[in-house]
Amino acid sequence: MSHSGRSHRRRASPQEVTLTAHHPTRRSILKSAGGLTAAMALGAGGVLAAATTAAAADDGFGLHIVDRNESDPRMWYYRFQTDAIGWNPGVNVLLPDDYHWSGRTYPVLYLFHGGGTDQDFITFDREGVRQWTAGKPIIVVMPDGGHAGWYSNPVSSNVGPRNWEHFHIDQLLPWVEANFRTFAEYDGRAVAGFSMGGFGALKYAAKYYGHFASVSAHSGPASLRRDSGLVVHWANASAAVLDLNGGTIYGAPLWDEARVSADNPVQRIESYRNKRVFLAAGTSPDPVNWFDTVNETQVLAGQREFRGLLDRAGIPHESYEVPGGHFIRHDLMQRDIDGIIDRLRKA
Length: 347
Hints:
This protein is of the alpha/beta class. It is built from 12 helices and 9 strands. The chain has a single domain (14-343), classed as Alpha/Beta hydrolase fold, catalytic domain (Rossmann fold, 3-Layer(aba) Sandwich), CATH 3.40.50.
């Protein structure tokens, strides 16, 4: 995937350096697995206190800020220590241009990255989220989700806690609403993502129905059980290699069937009623790139199944099938963000 936009990188904090030393095989595992893992990894209030790299007292949500940077007028960065995750996940919070002087309250978009070792909370800064939201009255929260965390609390982990669902829903969301001027209500929140993050958006919107009024999946899988559960197998295998050291998201060789059903968008159709639903998928994956073809072919088939079920239930949705394979389409991201702003409560 090619990237554009300015990267929002920082020098690693002491905590990050320590964690890197404890996990030297993350990239070597990827290399040893070859291209297989690329296919498997299918894919907030008022101004906060002064910057510090020391762990703060528990803020009431189970989070401790261990690193932060609020020097950029729009893109603020935080890294948290949390019992939900065995390392310190990062979050970028993109503020509206007028946030610091307007006094207004804003809707929030939670925007999730895809899977793979090149994907994390700075992904959308590289891709151009500043440009997509320039002059727009919305806060965008972009958190870490793991290389292959699948926006889930895994059935098993051999590297300590990797409970991304708990971190995002029970800790990060209330922290954002306590620290930034946001509408802490259904009509004040949207969730969207690319690839694995698109699945996470669909999953959270259904499981936490009263949280999000708009949901968007850009090349995100919408059907876990089709083709003998191929997406479940991808989730398990990619997480085992990249994040969990042999642990799995849904269990193996036997799945936690109740968990699969609870997470499966096509089995939660009524949970999308009265929401804005936006879907996008590619119709022509690169025939030379087997990984791209597997990813987007499965995404397209699953989204078609999902759309058919929405149609039969009489649930409106906006969908796009466009040429190309498994990548972020900037024009559709811009269209989606404009639609999200139209749907949510106005700043």
